[in-house]
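Researcher: Good morning. I'm working through a list of sequences from a screen, and I'd like to move beyond sequence-only analysis. For each chain I'm collecting a predicted structure so we can compare shapes side by side. This is the next one on the list. No need for commentary yet; just the structure.
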Amino acid sequence: MLKAQNPILSGFHPDPSILRVGEDYYLATSTFQWFGGVQLYHSRDLVSWEELPSPLSRLSQLDMHGNPNSGGVWAPCLSYCDGVFYLIYTNVKNFHGIFKDTHNYLVTTTDIYGEWSEPIYLNSSGFDPSLFHDDDGRKWLVNMRWDHRMEKNDFSGILIQEYSPEKKGLVGEPRLIFKGTSVGATEAPHIYKKDDYYYLMLAEGGTMYNHGVQLARSRELFGPYEADPMPLLTTRNNPERRYQRTGHASLVDTPSGDLYVAYLLGRPVGKKKRCILGRECALAQVEWRDGWLRLKDGGIAPPEEYTVNLPAHPYPQAPETDTFELDALPHRYKTLRVPFDEIGSLKERQGYLRLYGHESITSWNRQSMVARRLQHHSAEATIEMEFSPTDLQKMAGLTVFYDTYNFFYLYKTYDEDEGEALRIIVRDSLKFYNPLEKGLVSLPRHDKIWLRVKISTDILQFYYSIDNSTYYKIGPELDCSNLSDEAYTEIGHEGHTGTFIGMACQDLTGGANNTRAYADFRSFTYRSKI
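Model: Good morning. Structure tokens for this chain:
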């Protein structure tokens, strides 16, 4: 018997879709504007997880140029049938105002470690699509329907439509099978079949503190569906609990018949009670009771621990320090909206990651950033960089990044009066400021520099060194609780991602790659301080 602590995947891992094939478990989570699209994991014991290659690694599968913050890949659904893995995902091009442009696609593979197919376009009627493989061999797409009419319920219900593998597209007409409960914001549909019932597993209440998991059932695929009189999982009436914002679940069984749901949660911290790590992935054991799923240990609140009756199968921990004598980036590193080969190289200089400067750090198109998730409330990250700027529009450094509206950026640049210098840009809920008293810190002429950030709950402190021995504080301690969905909500906006720490480079003078300024990164170190 193994006992594990939630969350199973810390840091930004929302919208889990979990699947068992034999003795192997696979899990997919949303990546939003981060490329490659969809984060995949594999486990043999539901406790230890290894990262797999991204299934959406080509622009032909996922073009996110110009996608807004928190657009891109929403809510993937992973399924398996007759030797084929199916992955359905949404590429959200716009979701502000009364309209949502949400394009749904399907890719397939017979080798989950290998390449996935070119995408098949499905529809754009809503988001959170999933594929149900019925016993008779037919396949059905379900997704929530978005209604832009302002006098109506925008989350207007769940649509179903048949998918034809032969025609590689949807056939027949879509049907509305469930309108949701009074909680509202009905989304994230998954269909399961049990004892002659079709069960809809849904998310309701929105992605913030009213979120929850709801079931409905019908003896017919097209309904009518009756709602479970109680939610399966929610903390909407338990604001004192450590884990909040629980919802968006999917179901998996073990070979012995034990049942679990993977779901998302948030862990608010600090005085403002914000989820700086984003929405994370957790697991809870469930069982069938009186025709409905219930948490194994009772109640409707998320458990902080869970147990599994499976043999342990641990995977090696990621190293604290990544050096870049590599042929490809480790899967934990992501780029913004574009593939790495558009902005950088691991081959141009042996042992270094080279980033060519492109657009500004606020760009929604092509900016040069390679980053990894912040996964602990107390952490430290350090980069070793070589960069020789000759112009104030050329810069490179270390960023702590939620999105282009909320970030912290310590960077090296050039000043016409001081020469090479360090500056800090903070963007806090759309407002820019520089926390340095004199605006910059002058540097001796030295190509190599180490930049560091320490994060403690909701406080951030930058450092720098020119010898990797003596580190100097730069700037004051900064409140970094703006790196959260909650900060967006409080100013009337909508955000769905999480905090990343990354390497970045900009050359605002333009030019081709071979004429642009570039920064070479020798190493990236990430340490949990817990």
